[in-house]
């Protein structure tokens, strides 16, 4: 599967300009018909950035505007989208919501970030999702998505592996101050679950926070096979062979060695 990751410099507080940027980027990465991606990955909160204090006005009712915008592009380019996350409103609550759009334009999955980041004041401006992430399927491949800080919570990611996920996507705006954690934890999640981990991180600054970039593609062995740089907006292109998951799981059969009845 050909995949393109957008390591994006998000314009804080300006959903219209960010949607324009994403449309331009999608048209560009899909222009080369020979190596056209079948799936794209966007970062966390890419419509608004981290201008959390404006979310009461900027969060979209059920994400409808951006979902309809992306659906048209998905149909136009026959493209699946792990469409990062956006700020959504539902019944008076505001969530950081990951969305997945299939190439036929259908939004097949959404997940409200369940771990909010104290260091970034998220609990002041956002509501916690009340449901753990679950697997969804595209082209017969089981996949999972978690958002940024969720990477620090191996339990929910293990559950995705146990549900059959062969790849984990991580839309993020992870700060540069904690780049070591960002990289090592992605490799650890790939090694312990024996699946691919693909992340789309932001770059640039919002107020005093600089984002880490270093969007990664990690294979089920834990090797980084593609990566973004630290400070530049860029596209990471990769080709994933999902048969590698089965090969690694045969070589080191941790699933059959697990003893969950002794774990709690
Ligand atoms: O866990 C961290 O250090 C960063 C998390 C984060 O930036 C986020 O979830 O948006």
TrEMBL record:
A UniProt-annotated Pfam family: CN_hydrolase
Protein name: Amidohydrolase
CDD domains: nitrilase_5 (cd07583)
SUPFAM superfamilies, A to Z: Carbon-nitrogen hydrolase (SSF56317)
PANTHER family: DEAMINATED GLUTATHIONE AMIDASE, NITRILASE-RELATED
Family membership noted in the UniProt record: Belongs to the carbon-nitrogen hydrolase superfamily. NIT1/NIT2 family.
Organism superkingdom: Bacteria
Domain CN hydrolase: 1-242
């Amino acid at each position: 599967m050909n995949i393109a990751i957008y390591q994006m410099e998000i314009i804080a507080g300006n959903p219209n300009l960010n949607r324009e940027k994403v449309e331009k980027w999608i048209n560009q990465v899909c222009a080369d018909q020979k190596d056209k991606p079948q799936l794209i990955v966007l970062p966390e909160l890419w419509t608004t950035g981290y201008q959390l204090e404006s979310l009461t006005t900027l969060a979209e009712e059920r994400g409808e505007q951006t979902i309809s915008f992306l659906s048209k592009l998905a149909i136009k380019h026959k493209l699946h989208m792990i469409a990062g996350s956006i700020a959504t409103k539902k019944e008076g609550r505001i969530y950081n919501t990951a969305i997945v759009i299939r190439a036929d334009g259908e939004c097949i999955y959404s997940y409200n970030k369940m771990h909010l980041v104290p260091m970034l004041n998220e609990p002041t401006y956002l509501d916690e999702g009340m449901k753990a992430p679950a697997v969804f399927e595209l082209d017969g491949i089981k996949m999972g998505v978690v958002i940024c800080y969720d990477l620090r919570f191996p339990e929910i990611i293990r559950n995705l592996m146990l549900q059959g996920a062969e790849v984990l996507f991580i839309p993020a705006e992870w700060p540069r101050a904690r780049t070591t954690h960002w990289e090592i934890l992605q490799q650890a999640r790939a090694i312990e679950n024996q699946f691919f981990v693909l992340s789309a991180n932001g770059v640039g600054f919002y107020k005093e926070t600089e984002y880490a970039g270093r969007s990664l593609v990690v294979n089920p062995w834990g090797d980084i096979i593609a990566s973004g740089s630290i400070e530049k907006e860029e596209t990471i292109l990769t080709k994933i062979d999902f048969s590698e998951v089965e090969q690694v799981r045969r070589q080191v059969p941790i699933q059959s060695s697990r003893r969950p009845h002794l774990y709690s």
